């Protein structure tokens, strides 16, 4: 056992400021009501063939991105799916594009994550072509979708085509399967995605639904009016063209640029009318903070201790909450992380009220 573990009875600093890259390190502590809302909403989409738009609303650092990462974990999605008795969802996180072509950027992100060989293997023996032939009336899009599931077509060449990187000479190789031109308009990209999502969730036998988290949606406020139009049109059309088995979460941060009153300015009525639920990440109460802290520390506990807040005395936790006032979860974590690191460097433990007072001006430095 290392010095940090023996001094603080923790496997590592629980209050990490950078996102975990290993899904196993992404955990959920406290905030059970919010967790249950996400579980129920995802389970509903797993069970029922409908498409839904959900708005996640809260201040910066309130946990929206963490929720996206946690519920994007295959292990968590598998638990929800097992409870529903259905297949796992096809899930991904997409930051809101800030460039000139937001729809193409979203489309490219989905194609980046698309493992064509794996999809073909999973759909082996399923007559997906008959389903595709009844998807819309655009024969070109139908042929592109069929190519995705066709084992006879080179998957790398197809990826080049989907990215729009294929040469005119290479495009001729696709003429025999009815693909005569490149994809080039937002309508093309939206139809390919909606068709792909519908195919992936065909009869809910391979994937029960598609779950998409669009993170940092508040950045729509800095887009040009043209790109705001494009983003809203995409959301409306992707939901309309994928009537079954699509769940879209919009993570939206309340800020100086974006308040509740501004919502109508950037999210059009055609999209707002499709929002089925709003999940609010409110600033936590004292007891909510403390419950979160107990569960988080317990997850990283090395050994046992009668004090559920160890290495912090409970009165230290109470004072930080009182001094900081109404703060986000991120700010709370930052204060405890800094205090823990300072005490570790100076070899002071446990972190009593007297120890904490030595560092209080540094820990509470950003108090308004």
TrEMBL record:
InterPro entries in alphabetical order: P-loop_NTPase
Descriptive protein name: KAP NTPase domain-containing protein
């Amino acid at each position: 056992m290392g010095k940090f573990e023996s001094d603080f009875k923790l496997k590592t600093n629980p209050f990490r400021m950078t996102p975990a890259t290993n899904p196993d390190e992404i955990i959920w502590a406290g905030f059970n009501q919010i967790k249950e809302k996400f579980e129920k909403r995802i389970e509903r989409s797993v069970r029922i063939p409908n498409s839904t738009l959900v708005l996640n609303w809260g201040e910066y650092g309130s946990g929206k991105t963490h929720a996206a990462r946690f519920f994007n974990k295959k292990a968590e999605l598998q638990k929800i799916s097992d409870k529903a008795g259905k297949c796992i969802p096809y899930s991904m996180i997409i930051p809101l594009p800030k460039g000139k072509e937001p729809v193409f950027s979203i489309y490219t992100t989905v194609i980046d994550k698309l493992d064509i060989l794996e999809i073909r293997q999973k759909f082996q023996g399923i007559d997906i072509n008959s389903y595709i032939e009844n998807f819309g009336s655009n024969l070109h899009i139908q042929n592109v979708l069929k190519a995705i599931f066709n084992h006879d077509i080179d998957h790398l060449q197809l990826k080049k085509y989907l990215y729009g990187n294929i040469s005119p000479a290479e495009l001729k190789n696709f003429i025999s399967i009815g693909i005569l031109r490149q994809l080039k308009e937002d309508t093309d990209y939206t139809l390919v995605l909606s068709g792909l999502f519908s195919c992936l969730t065909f009869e809910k036998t391979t994937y029960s639904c598609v779950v998409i988290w669009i993170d940092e949606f508040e950045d729509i406020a800095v887009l040009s009016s043209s790109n705001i139009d494009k983003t809203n049109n995409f959301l409306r059309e992707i939901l309309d063209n994928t009537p079954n088995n699509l769940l879209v979460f919009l993570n939206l941060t309340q800020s100086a640029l974006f308040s509740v009153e501004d919502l109508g300015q950037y999210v059009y009525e055609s999209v707002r009318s499709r929002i089925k639920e709003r999940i609010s990440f409110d600033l936590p109460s004292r007891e909510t903070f403390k419950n979160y802290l107990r569960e988080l520390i317990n997850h990283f506990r090395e050994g046992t201790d009668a004090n559920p807040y160890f290495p912090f005395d409970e009165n230290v936790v109470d004072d930080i909450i009182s001094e900081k006032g109404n703060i986000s979860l991120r700010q709370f974590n930052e204060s405890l992380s800094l205090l823990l690191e300072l005490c570790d460097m100076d070899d002071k433990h446990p972190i009593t009220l007297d120890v904490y007072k030595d560092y209080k001006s540094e820990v509470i430095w950003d108090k308004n």
